[in-house]
TrEMBL record:
Keyword S-adenosyl-L-methionine annotated: no
UniProt-listed PANTHER family: BIOFILM ARCHITECTURE MAINTENANCE PROTEIN MBAA, DIGUANYLATE CYCLASE DGCP
Sites of 4-aspartylphosphate modification: 61
Coiled coil: none
Species classification: Bacteria, Pseudomonadati, Pseudomonadota, Betaproteobacteria, Burkholderiales
Domain Response regulatory: 12-126
Location of the PAS domain: 145-202
UniProt-listed Pfam families: EAL (PF00563), GGDEF (PF00990), PAS (PF00989), Response_reg (PF00072)
The protein, known as: Bifunctional diguanylate cyclase/phosphodiesterase
Record keywords, A-Z: Phosphoprotein
Residues annotated as domain GGDEF: 317-450
Organism the protein comes from: Massilia jejuensis
Domain EAL as annotated: residue spans: 459-712
Length: 713
């Protein structure tokens, strides 16, 4: 702790911050030779110093490791410590600012702060404290000298007045001319109602002309006063009144009797709190609105939906709640950056608002999620029309400073009272309907029905169970053999994950992998797969050590995981040769960070692992992969194989893929072969390696080992 200097009359400041750099920075900033500075590195240190020393101002950080800033302010209030507080904090939540201001903080400066911002706040706080002390001295000075009384009263930052028994001004200081624009001489003899804003006259009659002088006298009564025409014109206030805080007390002659107490008039102090009220209004607005889009936030939306439900029940009419989730928004954020993502959200909000009526409410829930309440509906189709407008408005491209972005939306709709009678029911069911749209391909809308709830419940239950599947050893690898039809021998296998669910039986990856991606379970599952595959390969190598394994890992793992290190470690541990492993990639593997994907695949190639393109031909960038990635094998997507139904017909896409592979010297595998016609056609045009149900279905490891024991198909 720093000792105070030897200048007792200088303002004393206490800097409270657990970050030594912040403390040193503030100390250097405020060290000007006219202030005494002390520092505290913790909340307890600050409480100890406040209890033992006198300070004029505390520069307080809210986020302290032991006692937070709000509790320190509560201690100051509880112990009646005469000190002002300026908050200097990195917290951006509106609740933090509101909590500090309610506890009497003079100002709230957010980190990182500017030099002028901090020095101005400190200067104003010390100046305001000085003025308050000056006002206290006024009361003493009034008893000593009428001349001193006049001087100090007129120098006050507040309007000070006295009234006679009829409520007419007998005295008012010069501050009234600076704040309201009226000359003091023209107000002497006027009734106080001449200054009061018309709508506040009733309140003023009970407070302005106060006759009580005890604890019941008027304290901190807020009302509005008129401004003169000159002030309205020169200062731009127009018809804007000034908001004041009024303290008034009755004046009595000494020696009055109980019957005639000697009331002679009223003494009052008027303080301008206009800017304070404006600041409070801004804080209140921000507490209920989303700062980015200026839409109502979740709290305000719930309030409005609650009121709309009350009206709907009273009028016996319908209302609709919509839950909107933007499709492909994350791709915009990942590729163009969060700044462009924010701009996109602002444009989306503007488009959606244009589709609504004046009485409808659009709110931002957070992220890329929006909610809507449509009150006073005559038919369900009214909500359908609005949802269709939303879909159409979002189909148009968005211009983000020269970058074009295209998105869509999945919209769920719940209607009162058919789909719920409470606020939470309607929101939950609209959310459920939205997930139904997501599951059916996105870019659309759907009304809630009970089947949607049952589907979501099953999906949620499945998702919760997946978190425990690894620890309970419920996952298992299956293997689908790949056959060289020219020799009728097995040449490899594709590894496919399955989940042996305790109640649902065998669950396929298309059911549970989307949940794994959504909840960041892909890295853990992928690393389990690599270990399981290498362990199984070690087992089947005793029967055949030439078969190659195709390993299909999620793009999320290649993008975020450490596949090179994990695969290399597993192969060394299980003594697996890298040339027996082939990693399959899909088109969306390089969307977010293509260079990282290329680097990862090149490292795998250097390790000796080969690379295959899975589902070749269905993506717009498949051909680009052949130039950018170190590809060894092409797998023809089963959708093209399924189209082969005649020996003599022409299937140009299949022929083109075979031609590309032959021209580039790549291996070729046909997926999803299910008929002899498909086998004959593929062999006739140069593709001999195949996999599909015609040959073998995916099978567990023991069955696969038994199958490769003979090798022949």
């Amino acid at each position: 702790m720093d000792a105070f200097s030897a200048q007792p009359d200088y303002p004393r400041l206490l800097i409270v911050d657990d970050d030594p750099r912040s403390r040193d920075s503030l100390r250097e900033l405020l060290k000007d030779g006219t202030t005494d500075l002390a520092t505290a590195r913790s909340g307890k240190d600050a409480l100890m110093q406040l209890s033992s020393r006198r300070f004029d101002l505390v520069l307080l950080d809210l986020c302290l490791p032991d006692v937070n800033g709000h509790k320190i302010m509560d201690f100051i209030s509880r112990e009646a410590i005469d000190v002002d507080v300026v908050i200097i904090s990195g917290r951006v939540e509106i609740d933090a600012a509101i909590g500090a201001l309610k506890r009497g903080a003079f100002d709230y400066v957010r980190k990182p702060y500017g030099l002028e911002e901090v020095t101005t706040a400190v200067r104003n706080a010390l100046e305001q404290r000085r003025l308050r002390q000056a006002n206290r001295h006024i009361a003493i000075a009034l008893e000593k000298s009428e001349r001193m009384y006049r001087y100090l009263v007129d120098a006050s930052p507040d309007i000070i007045y006295t009234l006679d028994r009829e409520g007419r001004f007998t005295f008012i200081n010069d501050r009234v001319s600076r704040l309201l624009g009226f000359q003091r001489d023209e107000l002497i003899g006027q009734h106080y109602q001449a200054l009061v804003f018309e709508d506040d006259l009733e309140l003023a009659n009970h407070a302005f002309d106060e006759r009580r002088s005890d604890a019941r006298a008027s304290r901190n009564i807020e009302l509005r006063l008129k401004r003169s025409a000159d002030v309205q014109r020169t200062q731009g206030h127009k018809n804007d009144p000034m908001t004041i805080s009024l303290n008034a007390s009755g004046m009595y002659l000494q020696g009055g009797s109980a019957e005639r107490p000697g009331f002679v008039g009223t003494y009052g102090v008027v303080r301008d709190v206009t800017e304070k009220k404006r600041a409070e209004a801004v804080i209140s607005y921000q507490a209920y609105h989303d700062i980015l889009t200026d839409l109502p936030n979740r709290s305000l939306f719930r309030d409005r939906l609650g009121l709309a439900l009350i009206q709907a029940k009273r009028k016996n009419v319908d209302l609709a709640v919509m839950f909107i989730d933007l499709d492909r928004f994350k791709l915009v954020n990942d590729t163009l950056g969060h700044h462009k993502g924010d701009a996109l959200l602002q444009q989306v909000a503007c488009r959606l608002k244009r589709c609504l009526r004046e009485g409808d409410t659009l709110a931002r829930q957070g992220g890329d999620e929006f909610t809507v309440v449509l009150p006073d509906l005559q038919h369900h189709d009214d909500a359908r029309v609005v949802a269709a407008k939303f879909i159409h408005s979002l189909e148009q491209p968005f211009d983000l400073d020269g970058h074009t972005a295209r998105i869509s939306a999945s919209i769920g709709i719940a209607v009162y009272p058919d789909h719920g009678e409470t606020l939470d029911e309607l929101l939950r069911n609209a959310d459920t309907a939205m997930y139904q749209v997501k599951g059916e391909g996105k870019n659309g809308f759907a009304f809630f029905d009970q089947s949607s709830r049952e589907l979501l419940d099953r999906r949620t239950s499945l998702g919760h169970g997946l978190r425990h599947a690894l620890s309970r050893n419920e996952l298992e690898m299956y293997y689908q053999p790949q056959v060289d039809t020219s020799t009728h021998r097995l040449v490899g296998a594709e590894a496919l994950i399955r989940w042996n669910h305790p109640t649902r039986g065998l669950v396929l990856p298309r059911e549970f992998m989307p949940y794994a991606e959504e909840h960041e379970l892909i890295p853990a599952i992928s690393e389990w797969m690599i270990d399981a595959l290498c362990c199984d390969m070690q087992r089947w190598s005793r029967a055949d050590n030439t078969l190659k394994l195709s390993l299909n890992l999620s793009p999320h793992y290649l993008d975020r995981g450490k596949i090179y290190d994990k695969l290399r470690s597993a192969m060394l541990h299980h003594d697996i040769s890298p040339n027996r492993i082939e990693v399959e990639i899909t088109e969306n593997i390089s969307k977010s960070n293509p260079q990282h994907a290329i680097d990862q695949l090149k490292r795998l190639g250097q390790l000796g692992v080969s690379i295959a393109i899975d589902d070749f031909g269905i993506g717009y960038s498949s051909l680009a992969y052949l130039h950018r990635f170190p590809v060894d094998t092409i797998k023809i997507d089963q959708s093209f194989i399924k189209a082969i139904v005649e020996d003599d017909a022409q299937y140009p896409v299949v022929l083109a893929i075979i031609s590309i592979a032959r021209g580039l010297g790549l291996h070729l595998i046909a997926e999803g072969v299910e008929s002899e016609v498909q086998v004959r056609y593929l062999r006739a045009h140069g593709c001999t390696v195949m996999q599909g149900h015609l040959f073998h279905r995916p099978m567990p490891i023991d069955e696969f080992i038994a199958t490769i024991g003979g090798k022949a198909t």
